[in-house]
Design goal:
about 280 residues, 8-stranded mixed sheet, 10 strands
């Protein structure tokens, strides 16, 4: 409901002023709602309308971006990592959570984490990276080099999980992505334990590490993130029944319109120049 003032300039010296009270305006867009005013039923409607990708479709979508649309891995990684850092900063501002540990795995998810580490440093955070199984490729070597040059602390050994909160305010989980299939390798179990048992807020990149990409956590002892940043489109494990009370953002504002049509994706619009949009 709006009050609208319409001013019409005429040929006479005076202006004609109309005051229209109780004018019903219907504003529609893809979602027919305002996210900033999202409460109750509207948020529930939003959750029901979102599309969720299977593991197979998520992999196929990535290949389409690489092959059909000629995106490079590092190009998408840069956009994804910036989205992660932006969402983390929105939920855990540097004024209250100024120290972050980023746990990186050996795949693209870990690369997203390395990019996010650099951007979080630029946002004013004191950032450390734990990267226990490094990928021997120039792209990852370069990302790690950039982290070091930007002042990110690369740690080789973590303190016991229950002591991490003495050093950091939050943890970013960039350990496993949507290609993960159990079981967890022995070399990466300490990293996953750090995420599960630190007692710190955990921000998961795309997929909470250790979860099945489609059916979510396999036990009550699985990782319980407080924030999930889905990339490109949410995966099935990010449905409300799995993520519970975790906040959920979508990032990766780079999908071509034809991709949305091909995979029949219904996603919310990004506002203005924002790199992320909150889903729940």
């Amino acid at each position: 409901m709006f009050n609208v003032i319409v001013i019409i300039k005429t040929q006479r010296p005076k202006f004609l002023l109309f005051l229209c009270n109780n004018l019903n305006l219907r504003i529609t867009n893809t979602w027919s709602y305002s996210k900033m005013a999202c409460t109750g039923e509207t948020c529930s409607d939003l959750t029901r309308n979102i599309s969720y990708l299977s593991q197979e479709d998520a992999a196929a979508l990535d290949q389409d971006l690489f092959n059909e649309y000629k995106f490079s891995v590092d190009q998408l990684m840069e956009l994804a990592g910036l989205s992660v850092a932006t969402a983390v900063a929105k939920v855990y501002p540097v004024t209250s959570c100024n120290t972050a540990l980023i746990v990186c795995g050996p795949g693209n998810n870990g690369g997203d984490g390395l990019v996010a580490a650099r951007h979080l440093t630029l946002f004013g955070y004191s950032v450390a990276v734990y990267y226990p199984k490094r990928t021997p490729k120039p792209l990852y070597d370069n990302l790690l080099w950039q982290c070091e040059k930007f002042g990110v602390n690369i740690v080789d050994n973590l303190p016991p999980s229950n002591e991490l909160k003495n050093h950091y305010k939050l943890v970013v989980d960039a350990l496993f992505g949507f290609s993960f299939k159990p079981p967890v390798r022995d070399a990466l179990k300490p990293a996953l334990d750090a995420l599960i048992y630190s007692g710190l807020p955990v921000c998961s990149v795309d997929i909470p590490s250790g979860w099945d990409v489609e059916t979510g956590p396999d036990s009550d002892s699985a990782l319980k993130p407080t924030l999930i940043i889905s990339l490109s489109a949410p995966k099935k494990c990010a449905k409300p029944e799995f993520i519970k009370n975790a906040r959920h953002f979508l990032g990766g504002r780079f999908l071509p319109p034809a991709i949305l049509q091909k995979y029949n994706l219904t996603l919310p619009p990004y506002s203005n120049q924002d790199q992320v949009v909150e889903l729940s």
